[in-house]
Design a protein that fits this description.
Oligomer: heterodimer
Largest sheet of chain B: 6 strands, mixed
Distance between the termini of chain B: 36 Å
Helix content of chain A: under 10%
Largest sheet of chain A: 7 strands, mixed
Shape of chain A: globular
Shape of chain B: globular
Radius of gyration of chain A: 14 Å
Order of helices and strands of chain B: EEEEEEEEE
Number of strands of chain B: 9
Number of strands of chain A: 11
Number of helices of chain A: 0
Order of helices and strands of chain A: EEEEEEEEEEE
Number of helices of chain B: 0
Structural class of chain B: mainly beta
Strand content of chain B: 35-45%
Helix content of chain B: under 10%
Low-confidence stretches of chain A: none
Structural class of chain A: mainly beta
Mean pLDDT of chain A: 96
Strand content of chain A: over 45%
Mean pLDDT of chain B: 96
Largest interface: A-B, 27 and 24 residues
Distance between the termini of chain A: 40 Å
Low-confidence stretches of chain B: none
């Protein structure tokens, strides 16, 4: 059974850097066709896609946030890490990681999601 | 940046049919990129509801159906049930392979 679990700080101060980890189980991050994205959702607002990393280490970023984001993976730990610099209260949100498997029928849809981790940005 | 526009809310009585529109542009849906739909129950993570415009993952009731035409897509729920009360999001891509979500629609069962 494949599961994703997000982890990270619940509270960060403005201007700090946020580091979030998505831990995979049941599937190796080196599996061809596997992609992992980070998606966030401010309280009461819509989903916003942030970044994606593919099995071959190709990376994609939201055009509006790309100067602040870095996505990476540690295949040996089956983890995907997202860092976001210069945090601001408007970045308060639940952050999700989600899977894409381009080798199955769902193709480029986010077919599996973690439970999400809530991050508050406040001094 | 691509924008997918949805109505903020739709409502219907149990058993009725409701539809949710997702309006994009020639740079995303109209460029041929597929549309996916997600259901988000209160305080829960989103769940894939429809993939590649009109396909249901295993376990999703056939009350849910999707379609795509031109620069828009639609999600229909027939035989509305109380458990369908949730937020619904469409999602697509643009030529940079950036993913985009719709503005979200809250479905209320009267």
């Amino acid at each position: 059974q494949v599961t994703l679990r997000e982890s990270g700080p619940a509270l960060v101060k403005p201007t700090q850097t946020l580091t979030l980890t998505c831990t995979f189980s049941g599937l190796s991050l080196s599996t061809s066709g596997l992609c992992v994205s980070w998606i966030r959702q401010p309280p009461g607002k819509a989903l916003e896609w942030l970044a994606r990393i593919d099995w071959d280490d190709v990376k994609y970023y939201s055009s509006s946030l790309k100067t602040r984001l870095t996505i990476s993976k540690d295949t040996s730990k089956n983890q995907v890490v997202l860092t976001m610099t210069n945090m601001d209260p408007v970045d308060t949100a639940t952050y999700y990681c989600a899977r894409i498997d381009t080798t199955i029928v769902t193709h480029d849809a986010f077919d599996m999601w973690g439970q999400g981790t809530m991050v508050n940005v406040s001094s | 940046q691509s924008v997918l526009t949805q109505p903020p809310s739709v409502s219907g009585a149990p058993g009725q049919r409701v539809t949710i529109s997702c309006t994009g542009s020639s740079s995303n849906i109209g460029a041929g990129y597929d549309v996916h739909w997600y259901q988000q129950l209160p305080e829960r993570a989103p769940k894939l509801l429809i993939y590649t415009n009109s396909n249901r993952p295993s376990g999703v009731p056939d009350r849910f159906s999707g379609s795509k035409s031109g620069t828009s897509a639609s999600l229909a729920i027939t035989g509305l049930q109380a458990e369908d009360e949730a937020d619904y999001y469409c999602q697509s891509y643009d030529s940079s392979l950036s993913a985009f979500f719709g503005t979200g629609t809250k479905v209320t069962v009267l």
